[in-house]
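Quick check before the chapter quiz. The format below is the same one you will see on the exam, so make sure you can read both the input and the output lines.
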Amino acid sequence: MGDEPYGIDPARIAGIARQVNGAAERGVEVAIVVGAGNIFRGLAGMAVGMDRATADYMGMIATVLNALAIQDALEKLGLATRVQSAITMQEVAEPYIRRRAIRHLERGRVVIFAGGTGNPFFTTDTTAALRALEIGAQAILMAKNEVEGVLDADPREHPNARLIPEISHMEAIERGLRVMDTTALTLCMDNDLPIFVFNMTDERNIVRILDGERVGTMVVTQAVEAP
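Here is the expected output.
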């Protein structure tokens, strides 16, 4: 949303596209999973009495809108892209096919995964973990909005909450820290997939992470204990 009260902020979308372009220029294969909290959240719909499955499907459809917006911004920078949706929308997106997604990546295309997992009751966190494992990704880079990484408490309730530089998947689950939902964290832990949690407001961060700098929080199977 950027500074907008609802929907899509073109300036924020352009900023995301520049960051992705910076990664692609380094020869990194990039796949993107988008949420739709700026348009519709399934849990919010359920909270006002909507059937959970219906609300989740509405949220999954909303992710396609965001995927198309990001695709447009990336292509304006000259990047080749493909949108793959877990919910069939053949006029605007390819169906999600794992081998086709991998082939697109091998050819230097940025793949944008929309439609969540295609199933209700699963979050886009779980989609990110699932797709990352399916395509053989080396890591998940989890962008946060104006949050530097994983904090040891909710900053809205504890203004002095501190950044945790490194933590294990299991500790994050046990402490109930809001990294990803439990299903997603468990998938990553079971498959030794690291997660880098960072503030996307700073457009340098993705490239800094790819260059090996320590940015935000690294979530790994076995964390190094702080001294």
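If your answer matched, good. The mean pLDDT is 92.
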